[in-house]
Amino acid sequence: MAEPSETPVSSPQGTSPEEVVARLMARDAFSQLMGMEVIDAGPGRAVVRMPVRSDMVNGFGTLHGGALFSLADSAFAFATNGAGTLSVAIDMHLGIPTASFPGDVLTATAVEQSTTNRLSFVDVTVLNQKDVVVGHFRGTVYRTHKPHVFD
Questions:
Q1: What pLDDT digit, counting tens, does each position of 8-55 carry?
Q2: I need a surface site. Which of 43, 86, 101, 131 has the fewest CB within 10 A?
Q3: pTM of the model
Q4: Any idea what the Cα angle at residue 140 is, between residues 44 and 79, rounded to 5°?
Q5: DSSP for the chain?
Q6: pLDDT for 5
Q7: Cβ atoms of residues 41 and 79 within 8 Å
Q8: Sheet-wide strand order for 37-42
Q9: How many folded domains does the chain comprise?
Q10: What was the pLDDT predicted at 4?
Q11: pLDDT single digits (tens) 50-91
C-alpha cells in the first residue's frame, strides 16, 4: 500500500475546494437533473441535499435505490475531487436501512476517513429531514494526481 501523502494537494491555479466543487457541479448535468444542491464542500468533505420527488420512486412508492445511490455518489465525488485533482471511483457500496418517500429531503454528508498517496476511503451518511439515517455508503477512489482542467 502507498504511503500517506505528506503534502496536501493544491487546487488548480490556487482555486479553492469550494470553487472546484462549484465548477464540477456546474458541469454535472445528472446531479442537476436530480435536483441536488451542494450545501458545503471542502478538502475531503462535502454535503449535498436532494428533495425526493414523485418521479424518483419505484413500484412500491419508495425512493428508487439508484436515486439514493446517486445522491451519495455525488457527495462522494465532490469530497474526493475538491482538492483539484482527478479522483475516480473504484469501489462503492450502499446500505439502505430506512425507506424514503416523496416529500422527504435527503442530505448526504461525505467525509474522507483514510487517505494515502493513491487511495482515499470515504463514508457517506444520508439523513432525511427528521435526521433519520436512510443510507450508509462507503466508497474508495483512486487519486490520479492529474489536475482538473476548467475551461
A1: 334 445 678 888 899 999 999 999 999 999 999 988 999 999 999 999
A2: 131
A3: 0.88
A4: 20
A5: -PPPPSSPPPPGGG--HHHHHHHHHHT-HHHHHTT-EEEEEETTEEEEEEEPPGGGB-TTSSB-HHHHHHHHHHHHHHHHHTTSEEEEEEEEEEE--S---TT-EEEEEEEEEEE-SSEEEEEEEEE-TTS-EEEEEEEEEEEEEEEP---
A6: 38
A7: yes
A8: 37-42, 45-51, 105-115, 119-127, 133-147, 85-95
A9: 1
A10: 37
A11: 999 999 999 999 999 999 999 999 999 999 998 888 999 999
4 lies in some domain? no
Rounded CA gap, 74 and 66, in Å? 12
CATH number at residue 52: 3.10.129.10
Q: Which of 42, 43, 38, 65 is nearest to 52 (CA)?
A: 65
Print the domain residue range for 106: 15-147
* Residue 106, in any domain of the structure: yes
Lookup result for grid cell 500500500: 1
Grid cell of 68 as nine digits: 439514493
Dist. CA 49–CA 40, nearest whole Å: 10
- Classify residue 87: in a domain, yes or no: yes
